[in-house]
Design brief:
By secondary structure, this protein is an alpha+beta fold. The chain has helices at residues 2-42, 118-122, 130-159, 176-180, 199-207, 267-293, 305-318, 320-338, 346-359, 365-389, 391-396; strands spanning 47-62, 68-82, 100-101, 114-115, 161-164, 168-171, 187-191, 194-195, 214-220, 223-229, 232-238, 242-248, 251-253, 260-263. It is built from eleven helices and 14 strands.
């Protein structure tokens, strides 16, 4: 009974979180598919369908080029389908010598095969040069990165750039930093040879270096001292990510407001900072995957749809500017994931085109078919694994959240 009461009490919050999640995902997916669509049009490829969501169509319309723009009942993704695609994954349809193409789609499987018109033959995606096909495929992730850069750049232009001096206020007793010899008042000057002028930059390096030694140069009483420290994983909690493992060394930043600097940022530098922020997210993702492989990070931190929905709702509660920045973060993540060399994803298509460029001909239909089946199985397995990890998020909806931990 208490579980039922808890469910009823949390229902409005859950609905709000779902709405925020659908908003975030729709924007990111639309921009991704729009990248494919625009470059396809530029390359002369005929696009038969632009879909937001999967399954049965809710409503849609045709544009003047004959593309069906549709919204479907399952809003967990989208796709652009070309005139000669066999399905939404852009697997090539079967063509005979007379130019007969299978034009079945996921929603119109009952439509019989028909002969392509001369205009449609000229607009076939799979008959385009490798560089054009590669450009169309890469345009989706590229659009995600451009969206993120644009959002981050806009935020820098609106709010400027804040930096907190990397001066140590305190050292957690017994922490790696304490063992390494850090002291209150130390001013961090560089980490692994990289100059540091912001405490956030130090945090980013620590966050991507679990169980790996880093060398920190600090200024102490006018002298330079080099200290070596190895970040260790600690379970922490924050409002957005919930319980998670985070690499730490045990330093806490100074809270002296005089150590916070601010400067206005112009358009050019804002774009540069936006690109740097986007690259930082990509590099952190790569490092995280690498750390999972080498067992320096735990795979149970990988989240799925439920965790993304939970984070979307929590961010939306903080205000519009926060959910806009979350859209940028998720856009980078979606762009990066799609570039992984897994058949079915954009990166898998690019891998096939690279092989085709080297061999001088595409892989056999049988090899591509088996590859797509393997890619589908792998993607589904990863989704199920991530969803299993999300059970802790669902459980947290019925529990009192712990105190948020702010230590580094």
């Amino acid at each position: 009974m208490s579980m039922l009461i808890g469910l009823v009490e949390t229902l409005p919050t859950v609905l709000f979180f779902v709405a925020a999640f659908l908003l975030v995902l729709t924007v990111v997916v639309f921009v991704h598919e729009l990248g494919h669509f625009l470059v396809a049009r530029w390359c002369g490829v005929m696009v038969s369908t632009f879909s937001i969501g999967f399954g049965k169509e809710i409503f849609g319309f045709y544009d003047r080029h004959g593309t069906r723009w549709r919204f479907a009942w399952i809003p967990l993704g989208g796709y652009v389908k070309f005139i000669d695609d066999e399905n939404a994954a852009s697997a090539p349809g079967k063509l005979d010598e007379g130019g007969k193409a299978d034009t079945e789609s996921l929603e119109d499987a009952a439509e019989p095969a028909r002969r392509l018109t001369p205009e449609e033959k000229a607009g076939r995606f799979h008959s385009k040069p490798i560089w054009q096909r590669s450009a169309v495929v890469a345009a989706g992730p590229a659009a995600n990165f451009i969206l993120a850069i644009a959002i981050f750049a806009a935020m820098f232009m609106i709010y400027g750039q804040y930096k907190l001096s990397p001066k140590v206020q305190s050292v957690v007793p017994g922490s790696p930093a304490a063992v390494a010899g850090f002291k209150p008042g130390d001013l961090v000057r560089s980490v692994n040879g990289l100059e540091i002028d912001d405490f956030a930059a130090l945090q980013q390096i620590v966050a991507t270096s679990p169980e790996r030694q880093i060398n920190v140069d600090v200024e102490r009483a006018g002298e330079m001292v080099t200290l070596s420290v190895t970040p260790v994983l600690r379970e922490r909690y924050d409002r957005i990510a919930g319980k998670h493992m985070r690499p730490e060394i045990g330093l806490q930043a100074s809270r002296d407001r005089s150590l916070v600097s601010h400067r206005d940022v112009g358009p050019v530098q804002a774009v540069q900072l936006g690109a740097e922020r986007t690259w930082t997210i990509i590099s952190q993702t790569v490092n995280y995957i690498n750390d999972i492989v080498w067992q320096r990070q735990r795979a149970d931190q990988v989240g799925g749809i439920i965790r993304i929905a939970d984070a979307s709702g929590k961010v939306a509660q903080l205000g519009p500017e926060y959910i806009i920045q979350f859209i940028a973060f998720l856009s980078v993540s979606i762009g990066f994931i799609n570039l992984l060399p897994i058949p079915l994803l954009d990166g898998g298509h690019l891998l096939f085109y690279a092989v085709e460029a080297v061999r001088g001909r595409p892989l056999s239909e049988r090899v591509q078919e088996l590859s797509f089946k393997f890619g589908l199985a792998l993607v589904i397995s990863l989704m199920l694994f991530a969803t299993w990890n999300d059970r802790v998020v669902v459980k947290s909806w019925f529990q009192q959240p712990p105190t948020e931990n702010q230590s580094q």
